Amino acid sequence: MSSPRIPRVPLVRSFTPQRTQDGSFTFFSQEFGELFHSHHGAKQEAEQKFVQPTRLREQAQLSNVIYLLDICYGLGYNSAAAIEAIWDVNSNCRIVLIGLELERVIPKAAVHQDLLNDWSNEVRWRLEDLSQDHHFEDARLKADLLFGDARSQLQNISQQRFQADAIFLDPFSPPTCPELWTVDVLKQVGNCLSPHGYLATYSCSAAVRSALQEVGLQIGSTHPVGRKSPGTVATWRGDRTLPPLSLQEQEHLQTRAAIPYRDPNLNDTRNRIQERRHQEQAESDLEPTSRWKKRWQERNKENESSPPLN
Question: Domain residue spans in the chain?
């Protein structure tokens, strides 16, 4: 099928693409003070932090229908990488995608700047159409973009009993966007994860990992992408093949940093969510995170100075 011509709609706000180290581009968010992707590589992050940990290629070899939930769809890179990976191994696989995004302008800006050109035409024109109409459907892809507060959208999706084979959890960092990393939000996210599905996020925050565990998910550590910090993968089943947490990561979950964010009514402000966590940390008997950090800095320094084993 040839790609349709999509009229370019003028943007309300302009975005300047910023090149990342793998040659792909991203945007900078003025509101959150962060890039939408890792500066080490936007496309690389989508593949290695989201597609690979959720084992989409393996899942596509076993099924002709894959359900995806992309939380904080943004420029559409995670969805683009996922669709391309699935169709690379099973061109007949039908994909059902729900993407959540705060602002309508972000996906449109990515299309306006031709930032989806790193993916095949089969993927690109469909997501360009999706960014314009917020709905797309043909024989191979059914996709919807839902806008606004993801907390409300997740409650609606959960009530509809949507079950994703892969969930991409990709908000801005927990300190700047705590409302999408709370135990209460992750309960809704977990409700949308199929019994055999996988959730992936770039974050290795102890607060996020402990929240995933509190919800009942099993967690593992994913490989770093251009930096020292790993990501996290989670699933409902006791999957022994999940990459295990290191001893350092396990001990991190026993510190005050692991006290999760909470938002009982799913409508608190960022400041209120932060204040609630700070109060709980101040009253906690858990080990101070600074002590854990100092201990591991000394231990790692000793290991670096030790002679190699023959």
Answer: 18-246
Q: In what order do the strands lie in the sheet with 193-201?
A: 135-137, 141-147, 94-101, 65-71, 164-169, 193-201, 231-235, 218-222
Compute the half-sphere exposure of residue 261: CA atoms within 13 Å on the CB side of its CA: 26
Q: How far is CA 238 from the centre of its chain?
A: 21
Give CB contacts under 8 A, 24+ apart, made by 131-139.
131/76, 131/107, 132/6, 132/7, 132/9, 132/108, 134/104, 138/1, 139/94
Residue 93 sits at φ, ψ, to 5 deg, of -70, 130
Whether the Cβ atoms of residue 21 and residue 128 lie closer than 8 Å to each other: no
| Tens of pLDDT, residues 90-120 | 999 999 999 999 999 999 999 999 999 999 9
What CA–CA distances, in Å, run from 79 to 40, 51, 243, 283? 19, 9, 23, 41
Domain 18-246 superfamily per CATH: Vaccinia Virus protein VP39 (3.40.50.150)
Tell me how far apart the alpha carbons of residues 176 and 198 are, in angstroms, rounded to a whole number. 25
